[in-house]
Amino acid sequence: MTVPTNGTPSPPPANPDLIAAGWERRSMAAPDRAREMAERYELSGFEVKLTPLAPLDFGPACTLCRESACKDHVMVYTRKL
Hints:
Order of helices and strands: HEHEHE
């Protein structure tokens, strides 16, 4: 997780391999919510990939939250079919 100039942590950076393959990072969400989002994106003509998060995805501004975010959230990527 990177820290913008205002000191507020931001989401982990997008996976460069997925971006190179045409995927767009959409959101970080709880798995249930991410599955709901995936259904809506699929109905809109998108391919959806839900990827787990790892503690190393987060920068030094996140301490305890990185452990809970990894357990409780996934990253949502989409690309047009």
